[in-house]
Amino acid sequence: MLRRAAAPQKGEFVVLLFRAATSAAGRGLIGGRPTAAVDATGLESRHTSRYFFRRSGKKHTSRLWTKLTVAVDTGSHFIAGAAVATGPANDSPQLRPVLAQASLAVGWDRVLADAAFDSEAHHAYARDELGIRSSVIPINTRGHAGPPGGKYRGQMARRFVPKPDGSRYKRVFGQRWQAESAFSRHKRRLGSALGGRSDQSRERECRLRVLTHNLMLLAATG
Q1: Partners of 81 in beta bridges
Q2: CA-atom Rg of the chain in angstroms
Q3: Which of 74, 125, 162, 181 has the fewest Cβ atoms nearer than 10 Å?
Q4: What is the rounded CA–CA span in Å between residue 198 and residue 68?
């Protein structure tokens, strides 16, 4: 029982995250028209740095790090949704489950993500299925010729043409960097390395870290 409490399983994690998000919204930690920023970061899978591996001539393989994808409230850095995968891997498939979790307790006004998550299906899921008013995901032009397909991607192409500094769209999308700030805050407080030996144990450890991150934010509200 202690082990399960310390490292929650996926179903338990979703319930605990929902309760924490409900509390965060009730305390005003998440505002009335919140913006969610979706992004991913890598966590070392043991306490040996990449620098040590380079110096020692050993190979630092892809299985030595774990990828955490989150939906974070840009105003408070509260993590409302999270998914774990073994890196390196395509970021795009994680947006849907992360947003689904994040929307259980919070009605988001806007979602921001970088071009790695570009997909008409993602826009449609956020807006049409989850009821999010605005989804801002720049067009990923790599490997694509011609104008982007789809209603929402067409809007992104028109709105994300080069614009001067200080323009509304640059100010809006600039809030996505709050996800990077949240990751920085998370790693400063909880470290950037995981102690688990297996992918499954590292996944559970990531869930525990997310809950701990949020509890520290809630504790600061009194």
Answers
A1: 71
A2: 18
A3: 162
A4: 15
CA dihedral 164, 140, 157, 81 (to 10 degrees): -90
Torsions phi, psi of 107, nearest 5?
-95, 105
Q: What is the DSSP string of 176-207?
A: THHHHHHHHHHHHHH-SB---SSHHHHHHHHH
Amino acid at position 14, single letter: V
Which pLDDT tens digit goes with each residue over 58-96?
555 545 679 999 999 999 999 999 999 887 778 899 999
Burial class (CB in 10 A: 0-12, 13-18, 19+), 100: middle
Query: DSSP label at 62?
Result: G
Taking the C-alpha atoms of residue 24 and residue 177, their distance in angstroms, rounded to an integer, is: 21
Q: What is the pLDDT of residues 37-53, one digit of tens each?
A: 999 999 887 645 554 44
pTM listed for this prediction? 0.84
Count the alpha carbons within 13 Å of 126 in the hemisphere toward its beta carbon: 29
